[in-house]
Specification:
Elements: H1 2-21, H2 23-51, H3 59-95, H4 99-142, H5 150-165, H6 168-173, H7 179-193, H8 197-202, H9 214-220, H10 223-230, H11 235-239, H12 242-248, H13 251-261, H14 265-274, E1 287-290, H15 293-303, H16 309-323, E2 327-330, E3 336-344, E4 350-357
Antiparallel strand pairs: 1-2, 2-3, 3-4
Helix pairs in contact: 1-4, 2-3, 2-4, 4-5, 4-7, 7-14, 9-12, 15-16
């Protein structure tokens, strides 16, 4: 109901504005909408470098603001040109065409403006429905209705109403976003609403090496972030966490995350629901492997059954001291990480080693 109330109000206002402005200005505004939508994406790259010096660094802002600025700029240019053209024609009919033709022209412009205004309103309605659908798809899943601010609540309400009315089919038909955009929202919403799934997420084979990055290591040991997740804090509060903010402001890391996530979205969604990855389940080597001193000592005894208890005790003590905390992480990108591995030097001393090899 909310969606259709807003749609009716929008069409009524734009139709009244079209009646007042006249057909020329409204027609040019409609062309401005068309060209603005067409050029918003291609020309957003021109605006993007201008935002970073102004302090705009958030990925969501850098994704949304440039095309919006391009759309507004192109619409403003067409409206300015429309005003100039309207004045030219108005001066002709007002001072050169006679009173009768002036009255007929004004009546024609007003009535055509009303009709074209409804066309403009329809175009704006389609654009708004696209924005509501694409953003609402995220906010409904990763937002808390109890703590959300009124703009988010209104957006979610309109998104629900639009879905109930079936208008989402129209919004999705004109949506340029790929399916991965919405599949990512499904995964993000599932993890956000179920904080215990983070442990399962960290064990997903494609994320094993990524989880060894220092930025994620700091985040995993951040007790403040853990408390925020346990009480299911709002997304804005989570993103304000220093460790999360550092990740979001690291374009290289964001690019690596997306290049890892995008090819595996369907498989990741299945893994989060069932704990089984259809894509990687056959490759049992992927995972985090811990060194087991007891099992190694038992293997040594099977190989050397005559080993003395004294030597066996010394060997086991050495294994526990040198490799008791060692672990090996094997990922899906042909890389591995070795942690807490003690290398024996020529003088018999030991030194801890941790590193990556490809």
């Amino acid at each position: 109901m909310t969606f259709w109330l807003l749609a009716g109000l929008l069409l009524l206002c734009v139709a009244a504005l079209g009646y007042r402005q006249g057909a020329i200005r409204v027609a040019m505004s409609f062309l401005g909408i068309l060209f603005g939508v067409w050029l918003a994406g291609p020309l957003s790259g021109v605006v993007l470098p201008l935002l970073k010096p102004l302090g705009v660094k958030h990925p969501l802002a850098l994704w949304f603001i440039p095309p919006f600025i391009v759309f507004c700029a192109i619409s403003a240019l067409f409206k300015t040109g429309a005003l100039f053209l309207h004045k030219k024609v108005e001066v002709y009919f007002k001072y050169h065409a006679g009173d009768l033709r002036l009255v007929l022209w004004e009546r024609l412009m007003a009535r055509l403006g009303l009709c074209l205004g409804i066309l403009n309103g329809t175009a704006y309605l389609l654009l708004i429905s696209f924005v509501v659908y694409s953003f609402g798809y995220w906010t409904v899943q990763v937002g808390d209705p109890k703590t959300a601010k009124w703009p988010v609540k209104l957006l979610n309400r309109v998104a629900w109403d639009m879905d109930a009315s079936g208008f989402t089919v129209t919004a999705r038909a004109m949506d340029p976003f790929p399916e991965s955009f919405y599949k990512t929202a499904d995964v993000a919403g599932l993890v956000y609403q179920n904080s215990l799934l983070e442990a399962r997420l960290s064990r997903y084979p494609a994320f094993l090496i990524l989880g060894e990055d220092p930025a994620f290591q700091k985040l995993s040991s951040d007790n403040e972030f853990a408390n925020l997740r346990l009480r299911q804090a709002p997304l804005k509060e989570l993103m304000a966490n220093p460790n999360v903010d550092a990740i979001l402001k690291n374009p290289v890391l964001i690019g690596e995350i997306w290049s890892t996530v995008e090819p595996s979205l369907a498989d990741l969604d299945e893994y989060l629901h069932t704990g089984i990855s259809p894509r990687y389940s056959s490759e049992r080597i992927y995972g985090r492997w811990k060194f087991n001193p007891s099992a190694s000592s038992a293997s040594l005894r099977r190989v050397k059954p005559n080993i003395s208890s004294k030597e066996m005790k010394r060997t086991r003590a050495f294994l526990e001291a040198a490799y008791g905390n060692a672990n090996l992480v094997i990922g899906t990108d042909e890389r591995l990480v070795v942690n807490n591995f003690a290398s024996t030097q020529a003088d018999g001393s030991q030194s801890a080693a941790s590193g990556k090899s490809e």
